[in-house]
Structures are given as structure tokens and as C-alpha cells.
Amino acid sequence: MPQAETLAALVGVDFGKGDFTASLEELSLLVKSAGARPIITILARRASPDAALFVGSGKAEEIADAVAEQQVDVVIFNHALSPAQQRNLERVLKVRVVDRTSLILDIFAQRAQSHEGKVQVELAQLQHLATRLVRGWTHLERQKGGIGLRGPGETQLETDRRLLGERVKMLRSKLDKLHKQRVTQRRSRGRNNAFSVSLVGYTNAGKSTLFNSLVKARVYAADQLFATLDTTSRRIYLGDAGQVVISDTVGFIRDLPHQLVASFRATLEETVHADLLLHVVDAANPARMEQIEQVNLVLKEIHAEHIPQILVWNKIDAADLAPGLDRDEYDKIRRVFISAQTGEGLDLLRQAVAEAAHRNSAAPTDENLTEVYEDDLISSIPTS
After folding, report:
1. Which tens digits make up the pLDDT trace of 345-373?
2. Single pTM value for the model
3. Taking the CB of residue 203, how many other CB atoms lie within 10 A of it?
């Protein structure tokens, strides 16, 4: 029997910052990616969030009326909500309330395919749940010894915290083992003098399609947000430049939940330790400049902002642009215009990667310095 379609109401509050319209369009795509159908969008404008209901009592009543009239199953906010705000809104709206962070975590949970991906997503979900658990059982704590509420020396809240803590500890242990495996693989590649290239970019910019075109692979690629969660690496041969390792990585998005950045540490390390970043941009997207900025913010958060970067303007067929490349005042290639879908400009991109590989082989290296930096980096990334 087919599952009934989940109907969603979207709520966006304009605080006068950033591209509000683009952010709302992105929310709609996220909701569709999660498997729900947005049927109504409710807008509000405020100077700052309301402490109790985020949108204020009057707007909350307006949303409640719309939810009842449209028979909506879930209300999705384009913002991060506090546990108290989420609980208060559910009381008023009488339906489930989901914030942007929970929505992205849900999509990641649906898309994770590998064992590593599933472990990383579960850890991020549990870390997010932990913030909700703090107030989730306060009504039990206030009832001293009610029937059915007396526990074996600890409250339900304490039991849940302990079980959650044990699971988080186990998941972190698994990810630490995976991290050590990746370090071993990277050192092996380093000994083989393989130039390492990592594809980064906003979600749905076309990274996986480009990866498939470059290495003739069959990585899953689709016109949807977060089609790729698991890092895939392949070797290609670029003539005089020799062997190059190219890695496809998870896409970034504005307000990427911090729990995901921390939990996907092992995956994102492929980006941190790359010799070159190919920053893939959707040239046909009107919000492309803001998306570039958002990707650079995440790169800074994972300490990858120092890595040489080439902007790859993808989807030129949709943007009505010609293939080509731009150089800076030092004759370094800084931007390449391509279409991963049609193959236009891919020869120019291979040329750009080969040039970067030649420059890298001519530069002095310090293996010991790299290993020290790696240890410092891992200890500096938050784990909670």
C-alpha cells in the first residue's frame, strides 16, 4: 500500500539579512528532497526572533489557521529553532514542527549509503537530539514519584542521557578508526606522489556529474540537493602531469548544521588534505556569488581555506556562456567555464589541473610539517 504524501507548510522569517527569496526557494527544494510536498508558504518580517514562539503569538495563530485549513502534516521553519520554541509551536499548531537543521539531518539520513556515511549521520542526529533532550523530560522530573514514574535510582531524563552518551561514544570510536584508515590511505598516495584534487561546491552544483565525466565513473548524480554524501576517489592520467587522484565530496549549503561539519570530519578530511580544490559553481544560478561565499565559509571552518582553488563555472549550457578560462596577473588559471553535462570545456579543465600539478611538483615539500599540521587540525575540530 503506497505511503500517503506528507503535506508541508513552509515558514520563512525575513530578518533583513542575506538573499531571503533564494533562501526560501532552497527550503522548498530541501523539503522536496526530504520526500514531502510544500503546499503553502507563510512569510513574516521581524527585527529579531520571539523568545517563546520565534514568530510571535499573532503570526503563530495565523500559521495554525492555515495548517487547519490546508490539513498540513508538518510545519517546516527555514531557521534553527530552540527546543523550547519547537515545543511551544507544536502546542499552538497541533502538528509536528521541524526546523532547518532537523530537515537537513533527515535528508542526510535518507541518502547515506556507506557504513561510514550512516555512522556520521547518526552521530550528528544524536548530537542534535541531545540539545532537545535537556528539556524533553522536565515534566517527569517535577513529579516526585508519580505512579509508573519511579525509576531504579535515576530519572527518565538521566537514563536517556546515559544511553545517548554511550551510543555517541561508540560512534565516535568507529569514526576514529575510519579516520586512521584514511590517514594511512593518504600517506600511501603521498608516497606514490599522486597529486590530490578535491571537488567542492554548493549542493547541486554538478560535482558528481563532473566527477563522472572526468574519471568515467558511475557515481550517483541527480538534480537534487545532497545527492552525494560519501566521498569517492579515482585516479586519472593527465599526460606529463602524471597520475592525479580526484575526490568527489558532500555538497555544502548555507547554515550547514555544525553537527554535520563535525561528524563528517573523516569525509571532509579529503578536502582538507587536497593539493587543489576545484570549486564547482552553478553558473546558471542567480545566487551563485552568495553560494561561493557560503562554500568558502565552510572551507574556513574545516581549515581548508589555505588550499589553492580554481573556480569551475559549470552548467554554461544553461547559462548561455562559452567555454573558456581566466588567468590572474601571475598567469595562474583561476576560473574555467565548462558544462559537465555536455562535455564542453572539459579539455580546458584538464589543462588547468595539469598546470596546477606541474606547479605543485616544482614547489618544495616538507612531509614532517604536513604530519604535524594534520594532528593539530584533527584536535582542533569540535566533536560535540
Report:
1. 999 999 999 999 988 876 655 444 343 33
2. 0.73
3. 25
